[in-house]
Design a protein that fits this description.
Order of helices and strands: EHEHEHEHHEHEEEHEHH
Radius of gyration: 17 Å
Number of helices: 9
Oligomer: single chain
Number of strands: 9
Shape: globular
CATH topology: Rossmann fold
Length: 244
C-alpha cells in the first residue's frame, strides 16, 4: 500500500504512519522540517515500512501545491491513500487583535488543506479507487468564543470534505473526515490536561482503521460524537453565555 502523509512530523501523523509501517506500507512523508522528517523516516523503516520517501515543503505555500503533489505522485508511482494531517492551534486572543494573524491561521487550517485536497481528489478521481483522509476537529462543529478562529477554519474544512465525500463516492474513493477532541500532543502542551484527553497513539490507530475501512466522519475518541451532539442542542441565547 502506498500512503502519502502531508504534515508527517505531527504527533498524530507519526502515530498513524507507524500503523501503516507495521503492515509494510510504502510511505511518502511531506513536512517543512527536513531534519525531523529524517528522524521520522528512520523510525518508520525500523518499524517495517517497505519504503519511505521524504519531501520537504512549506504546506502554507499554496502556489507550490500543484508541483509538490505531482512530484509525490510521480516518485511514488501513484498512491493508494493520503492523509492531510497538519494545522496550528493558534492564540485566539492574538487572532482577535490581528486580522493578518486571523487570516494566517485560516490559511493554515482551511485554505491550504482545501487546496491540497482539490488537487489530490482530481488524481484519485482518475484512479477510481483509494482513500483521502483529513484531520479536522470537534472545534469545527460549533463556534466557541475561546477558539472560534481555529474552529471556523475547521468548520470550513468539514463542510468541504462533506461535499467532496459525496462527489468522490461515485468514483470509488472514500473521504474520511477525522474529528479529534483533546489530544495530548506538543500542540496542546500549554493546555491543562483532563480525563477527556486521548493519546496520539490512540488517535493514530483509529485513523489507520478508518482509512482502511473507508469510513466517513470519525470522532476520536468515539464519545466526542454524543458530546458535540449535546452541544449542538444548546440554544444560542444560552450558548453565548457559556465560558467555553
Amino acid at each position: 500500500m502506498k500512503v502519502a502523509i502531508f504534515g508527517a512530523t505531527s504527533a498524530i501523523a507519526q502515530a498513524t504512519a507507524r500503523n501503516f509501517a507495521a503492515e509494510g506500507a510504502e510511505l511518502a512523508l511531506v513536512a517543512r522540517d527536513g531534519d525531523r522528517m529524517a528522524t521520522v523516516k528512520a523510525d518508520l523503516e525500523v518499524r517495517g515500512a517497505r519504503r519511505v520517501e521524504t519531501f520537504p515543503a512549506d504546506l502554507a505555500d499554496v502556489e507550490g501545491h500543484e508541483r509538490l503533489v505531482a512530484e509525490v505522485w510521480h516518485r511514488m508511482d501513484g498512491l493508494d491513500a493520503v492523509l492531510v494531517a497538519y494545522g496550528t492551534l493558534g492564540d485566539q486572543k492574538a487572532s482577535e487583535a490581528s486580522a493578518a494573524l486571523a487570516r494566517s491561521e485560516f490559511n493554515t487550517n482551511a485554505l491550504s488543506p482545501i487546496s491540497l485536497l482539490t488537487i489530490l481528489a482530481n488524481l484519485f478521481e482518475t484512479r477510481r479507487s483509494g482513500c483521502i483522509a483529513v484531520i479536522a476537529s470537534v472545534a469545527g462543529d460549533r463556534g466557541r468564543k475561546t477558539n472560534y478562529v481555529y474552529g471556523s477554519a475547521k468548520a470550513a474544512l468539514i463542510a468541504f470534505t462533506s461535499g467532496l465525500r459525496a462527489r468522490m463516492a461515485a468514483h470509488n474513493v472514500s473521504v474520511v473526515t477525522v474529528k479529534p477532541g483533546f489530544v495530548d500532543t506538543p500542540m496542546t502542551a500549554n493546555v491543562k490536561k483532563g480525563p477527556l484527553f486521548a493519546s496520539a497513539e490512540t488517535v493514530g490507530k483509529r485513523i489507520y482503521v478508518a482509512m482502511l475501512k473507508g469510513e466517513g466522519v470519525v470522532y476520536v475518541p468515539w464519545f466526542w460524537g454524543p458530546i458535540m451532539g449535546l452541544i449542538h442542542l444548546v440554544p444560542e441565547r444560552l450558548f453565548k453565555r457559556l465560558p467555553i
